[in-house]
Design goal:
The chain has one helix and 14 strands, in the order ββαββββββββββββ. It has 158 residues and is mainly β. It is globular and about 60 Å long. The model has no long low-confidence stretch (mean pLDDT 86).
């Protein structure tokens, strides 16, 4: 049993810790364990592509399939940020604003989710760029300076 201590300022009690309540939008993202497929504006899906050993693995947007490479899990890092974890990697804001696979979480993999007026989702990196499914080149994943059509994702449960 805890008894308050007497100090020169009087008595005080320690209150039990209560964890912060998950905001409703974050709860929506994390429902179903955060398991989602990311569909871009043009109907293509965020995909991890494993390449030959002498080439870099990459993130691309390609037509939908039921493969594991298009299954992602949204994980909460703190009150405002998430990571997008794939079958063997995390989505990362890499050099030259490219979206690349990363194999551990660091600041480059932390994204702030935002729900758009049309029901789609956008993800902003700590460098104020938005995850894009076709920004600089169709079929490639980049991080763009503005949240336009290419930076809006429809999230589907799997």
């Amino acid at each position: 049993m805890f008894l308050p201590e007497k100090s020169s300022c009087g008595y005080f009690l320690l209150e039990p810790y209560t964890p912060p309540v998950t905001p409703p939008l974050m709860a929506e993202l994390l429902a179903n364990g955060g398991r989602r497929r990311f569909k871009s504006h043009n109907g293509l899906y965020l995909t991890f592509r494993e390449r030959a050993f002498y080439k870099r693995n990459e993130l691309v947007v390609i037509p939908g399939n039921v493969e594991e490479d298009q299954r992602w899990i949204i994980q909460q890092i703190n009150e405002k940020e998430v990571t997008i974890k794939g079958p063997r990697c995390f989505v990362s804001h890499s050099d030259y604003d490219q979206g690349r696979p990363a194999y551990e979480v660091d600041t480059w993999e932390m994204l702030t989710p935002m729900k758009n007026d049309d029901g789609t989702w956008s993800f902003k990196s700590r460098w104020d760029k938005w995850l894009s499914g076709g920004g600089y080149r169709e079929g490639q994943v980049h991080f763009m300076p503005e949240n336009k059509r290419c930076e809006r994702w429809t999230l589907q449960e799997w």
